[in-house]
Amino acid sequence: MSGGSKWDRKYLYIGLTAFFVIGASILLFTFLNNWSGVKRVLAVILRALSPIIWGCVIAYLLNTPMKLLERYVFARLAARLCPKGSELKRRRVARVISAAIVILLALGAVGGILALVLPQVIESVKSIVPNIQTYADELMDLASRFFDDNPEVLSYADSLIGNVGEYIRQWANVHIIQRADLIIANITGGIYNVVRGVIDVVIGLVVSFYLLYHKETFGAQGKKIIYSLFRPDRANTVLQGVRFVDRTCGGFISGKILDSLIVGVICYISMLILKMPYPALIAVVVGVTNVIPFFGPFIGAVPCALILIFISPLKCLIFIVYIIVLQQIDGNIIGPRILGNTTGLSGFWILFALLFFGSLFGFWGMMLGVPVFSVIYAVVKRLISKKLRKRELPVDTQAYEKLERVDEQTNQAVSRTAEQESAVPRFVRRRRSRKKAPEEKQDDET
């Protein structure tokens, strides 16, 4: 009976495994086959969870400054305010004050930056808009002088402009005039989305306060769920992975924001020193786009250079040279000082992450692609190292640079140079050593 029950259990497990594998395959096929509908459902869910997502992001960014305020400032203040209270009550008082103060300080910092920069940006835009016709006239004069000296190019340009004009008229008739109602609806929807976004951020601030206040409780509940789903060794691995993600992504994002702020301030001061027009506007564009690793300064430099080239080609050239110098200073001095080696990726993998995730998810993919890929890279690296240790093979990458093969009996790495040296006959090695000896003696005498 016992043997029969074991066989029954074996076939039961095999059947359940096959059932779940087939069911998972069907679900995956249905998921991919109806991807457009899945995206709409995900968009609705994300729209509903938008205030919660904003609250989580704000709480995550403000967690470190809140801990510093709580530990070094408000813990002592709470002890003075509640001298006869329990330790739990003092901690709660310090946490409430710290969370409220750090949110107010963040709002004050953002509001102060907007109050300083926004009026100058508005003035810059106001001065640019009336001069658009002047810039266009200057460009037309430059083009006419060029075409006067090249009549063949002028005839080709006339035909090209005529074709482009006809295409623009057709495009405007199809996409603008016939779709005026849709355009008005999109504009109305855009205004609604902006208002909805502001409301989500405000609600997110309230959510972030609760998250910061109860962060230990939420953390304990998360650990409780993990240890209920996995064995202790697997749960410990999951927690180590979560801490690694927190250390990598959190350090990268907060450090990159601080780095972009410093680059924006340096750019603004430099634009004033170089007497460039619209310094606040250029500094804001360069600082905001600097959040994108590697490509950020160049992406921000393109619209700024287009503005400057109408005013003065020489200043545009100076600005381009300055951006290249600033990018080198930021990439080699400022960035490493602030970020350190938080990602652990080489230059090639950083470029790969930017191109891959940027093509998939746009701006957010370029901004978050590097820390996300660093986590994926670390997980794959850890799995490979674990497999190599299990097979008693070397883990260090340098051990494989000159690897020819691995001895099947001893599991020892045999390098290419060692195998080639062992293949040389003994009398040849002796002759080589005799030839090298006089040369070494002569080197010693010199």
Name the quaternary structure: single chain
Order of helices and strands: HHHHHHHHHHHHHEEHH
> What sort of overall outline do the alpha carbons produce when their principal axes are compared?
globular
Strand percentage lies at: under 5%
**Helix content, binned percent:** over 70%
Q: What separation lies between the terminal Cα atoms? A: 91 Å
The average pLDDT is 75
**Major sheet description:** 2 strands, antiparallel
Number of helices: 15
Structural class: mainly alpha
Low-confidence parts: 436-446
Computed over alpha carbons, the radius of gyration is 32 Å
The tally of strands reads 2
Q: State the strand order across the main sheet.
A: 1-2
How would you characterize the overall build of this protein?
It is a single chain. With 446 residues, the chain is mostly helical. The protein is 85% helix and 2% strand. It is built from 15 helices and two strands. The protein has helices spanning 2-33, 35-48, 50-81, 87-128, 132-148, 151-177, 180-213, 215-229, 232-273, 279-289, 296-311, 313-339, 347-390, 416-423, 426-445, and strands spanning 403-406, 413-415. It has a two-stranded antiparallel ribbon with strand order 1-2. The chain is globular, with a radius of gyration of 32 Å.
